[in-house]
Hints:
Elements: H1 4-28, E1 34-35, H2 44-53, H3 60-78, E2 84-89, H4 98-105, E3 110-116, H5 119-129, E4 135-137, E5 140-141, H6 144-154, E6 160-165, H7 175-188, E7 194-200, H8 205-211, H9 218-234, E8 243-250, E9 255-262, E10 266-270, E11 275-279, E12 284-291, H10 295-304, E13 307-314, E14 320-327
Parallel strand pairs: 1-12, 2-3, 2-6, 3-4, 3-5, 6-7
Antiparallel strand pairs: 7-14, 8-9, 9-12, 10-11, 13-14
The protein binds S-adenosylmethionine.
S-adenosylmethionine binds near residues 54 and 116.
Amino acid sequence: MASSAQMAATGAATRALSEFCSDVVMGLSHPGQKELPSKYLYDALGSALFDAICLLPEYGLSRAEMRLLERHAREVVERLPGPVVVAELGSGNGQKTRYLLEALARRQRVNYYPIDISGSALFRCQQELGHLEMVSLVGFESAYLDGLHKVAARRREGERLLVLFLGSTIGNFDRPAGEQFLRDVRATLREGDSLLLATDLEKPIPMVKLAYDDPPGVTAAFNKNILARINRELGGEFDLSQFEHVVRYDESERRIEMHLRSKAWQNVAIRKAGFRLHLRKDETIWTESSHKYDRQEVKEISGRAGFEPAGQWIDAEWPFAQTLFFAV
Ligand SMILES: C[S@@+](CC[C@H](N)C(=O)[O-])C[C@H]1O[C@@H](n2cnc3c(N)ncnc32)[C@H](O)[C@@H]1O
């Protein structure tokens, strides 16, 4: 007989699959631009491909952030009145977070709660950070805010929450949605809690485009994996060779857009959804945005969402900012 934990896990997996199915149908039914939510890029294969992207010389974001944390983690920690519990939104493999946890662990025991929609990313995070001295890790496989609410409910009296949102993942939201997301994060926090927010800054367009369109084609594989995932999980019949990875920079929105361009007229069944997708030649499916910021703008957006800046660090080689805020 199945245990209640097994039954709960099966129920959660069924709900996740049904939400994936309805999001796919909704995004691909748009009369105008067809879209797929970028969170579905991150299944086990997508998360592994993202880790590979972080190793590419063209993808300067990760190394910039690594340099910043290596140099400034102690300074960040010194600005935080303790004791602090740490929640990380979209932790991925957690590699860069090590510097912060080690700096914090020099002064206190640390409860660290990575939150990620990808179970395999959390598994890697556990491998990376689960054995640090003075650090106890409990992961939440869930959407950002659901996870954050659970972490907030666990904190003890007198503990402050430090929320990490690294990797410039906020750039996946449109600017208004990003600001609303920060408001939602703020609503979960108490005055005096903190947020360390990473944002990729504007830079020359060829440099930023290359970061999302690397010559070996790792980002192209990451992008196409969203269709492969639909094939695996929803009985889709996409022929991946009929799609091209396309990267555009929208100058007015100051964002990279990743699309999948159909090389031909196509009529593709997604069997479990009972849905057929019609695509014209050269029509695209928009899969991800990565907005780029101005360092001052980051403070303004966060200020409107209820945060006050307490420090900002910029990488000298690859324009990238980490900004520390207090909830006010
Ligand atoms: C761009 S990666 C960044 C990973 C890591 N923070 C880093 O800096 O390398 C985004 C991460 O957020 C996770 N993610 C994406 N959408 C999410 C959502 N709605 N809720 C929770 N996690 C999400 C992905 O699985 C992925 O691990």
